Structure formats: structure tokens, C-alpha cells
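Re-running Putative plant transposon protein domain-containing protein to confirm reproducibility after the cluster update. Everything else is unchanged from the original entry.
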Amino acid sequence: MGGRNIDLALCSSEFSFVSWLEDLHLLPLVQIQDPFYIKLVKEFYTNLRIVSSPNEEFALSSTVKGQHIFLDARILASILHIPHTGLYIFEHKKWLEVEGFHPNQILSILYPNDPNIHPNMALSTNRLSVDHRLLHHLIVHQFLPTGGGYTKLS
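Result of re-run:
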């Protein structure tokens, strides 16, 4: 993987995660071939601030080389080519609550050889299949980068 560009011809015949990304309409995020400048990107993220209050629509602000950049939810949705449907909050270490869905359904897919696995366990990526590990790698390094270690399943 060079930067944010995956060789789909190589991967699609070997790994099923490419079709998963296609089904989720995420292929454009792993096929960015435009040049980018690491120092400017770093400056953008260093100066990035949430400028909206809790009762307002989500908005970010940053400065790069003296240029002020303002991004609200509508602008971000437009950049990412996703619909602007409102704010979703992601809580670390908490399973989403969806009617008719139980976390054990997902765990049985991710860990088919471990019937004793349950949502309250500390889940590790080193027991995932290759496809699921690659998908996890893309999510934590490309789509939702975080600080710290990456071996814990999130």
C-alpha cells in the first residue's frame, strides 16, 4: 500500500476485504493518488480545533501557513461524498445498540473458532483472519487514525 492507494488488481483476487470496501462505498478513500505534503498535513492537524459548542452543528477550524480553514458538517460530508444526515457519536469500548442485533453475532463472524468469546473480553487482532486484520488495519490507520497501540480490536 503506497500512501492511500491500494493496488486493487493485486488485492481483489486474493482478499475479500476489497469487495467489503466496495459494498460500503469506501474504495475512493483507499485510491487517493493525489500528491500531498506531509508538513502541511501535519500543520493542519496540529492546529485543528473543534469550534462548535455542544448545542451547535459540528464544526472544525484550522490554520495552515496563515490560511484559516473552516469545515462544518456539510462541507465535510461534501468532501467525503457522503450524505449529510446528522451527527453520529462514536464511543470507544461501547457496542452500538441496534434493534435485532447482538454483538455476539459479529464476534462469531470475526472469531469463528472461539465459541467462548464475548463482548466484554479484551479482543485482539492477532486472532483475526487475514481479511479481517487487513480491514482493521485500514480502519485504524487510514479511516479513523488514533494514538497509541493498534493491536486491540476497536
